[in-house]
Design brief:
With about 230 residues, the protein is of the alpha/beta class. The protein has one domain: Spore Coat Polysaccharide Biosynthesis Protein SpsA, Chain A (Alpha-Beta Complex), CATH 3.90.550.10. The chain is about 30% helix and about 20% strand. The chain is built from six helices and ten strands, in the order E-E-E-H-E-H-H-E-H-E-E-E-E-H-E-H. The strands form three sheets. A six-stranded mixed beta sheet has the order 4-1-5-9-6-10, with helices on both faces. It has a two-stranded antiparallel ribbon with strand order 2-3. Helix 1 packs across helix 4. The radius of gyration is 19 Å and the shape is globular. The protein starts with a strand and ends with a helix. Pfam families: CTP_transf_3.
Length: about 230
């Protein structure tokens, strides 16, 4: 079985209730559910939550909520891997055989069905543990600077001061949308960002992390612009 798991705990603090807050006319989580369904990659689309209101919204938009996530997996310090592993184990206890699992974040309004399909293809093509969304940094990370305790500036990599920007290696970061993985990799707790993982490269125009109110406003503006262009 191929499984989509959308983690959506209820305790978001920086943007309260952000998983189900209205985003361009729909609850945020609805867009992740819709992309998962439209991809036709999954036998089941499950939302893992500790919150009854989130569960009700998820069900109304077509996801399953067959269990409530336990409290020990719902605090601020729990990572993604244990949450996905819990969902897999729960299904195994019901007699289900799970082969491939995709974690799709509930706050990923730019995730597309075609990207999910491409991720599954890459996972299989490379026989990888994981395939996850990444995008490139807009500015060379080798030229990043820090502000010291004295309020002064220093480079992270001063040895690159004289190197031309076009000669610096391109760098990528997690796009925060989805993470395909073999069930075995999730259950064994293998790290996602190293080892046998392959990138699903997305354009920067379809990536926006949403952690603050400023991020939210920017994401809605970008979403409306992309919708108008399409």
């Amino acid at each position: 079985m191929r499984l989509a798991v959308i983690p959506a705990r209820g305790g978001s603090k920086r943007i309260p209730r952000k998983n189900i807050r209205e985003f361009c006319g729909q609850p945020m989580i609805a867009r992740s559910i819709a992309a998962a369904t439209a991809s036709a990659c999954f036998d089941r689309v499950i939302v893992s939550t500790d919150d009854q209101e989130i569960a009700a919204v998820a069900a109304a938009y077509g996801a399953e909520v067959p269990f409530m996530r336990p409290a020990e997996l719902s605090d601020d310090y729990i990572g993604t891997i244990p949450v996905i592993a819990h969902a897999i184990r729960w299904l195994q206890q019901q007699g289900e055989e799970v082969a491939e699992v995709c974690c799709i974040y509930a706050t990923a309004p730019f995730v597309q069905a075609s990207d999910l399909q491409h991720g599954l293809s890459l996972l299989r093509q490379h026989d990888a543990d994981y395939a996850f969304s990444v995008t490139s940094y807009a500015f060379p990370i080798q030229r990043a600077v820090r502000i010291t305790e004295q309020g002064l500036v220093e480079m992270f990599a001063p040895e690159q001061f004289a190197t031309r920007s076009q000669d610096l290696e391109e760098a990528f970061h997690d796009a925060g949308q989805f993470y395909w993985g073999k069930a075995k990799a999730w259950l064994e707790g293998k790290p996602i960002f190293q080892g046998q993982s392959v990138p699903v490269i997305l354009p920067r125009t379809r990536v926006q992390d949403i952690d603050t109110q400023e991020d939210w406003v920017r994401a809605e503006m970008l979403y409306r612009l992309l919708k108008a262009e399409s």
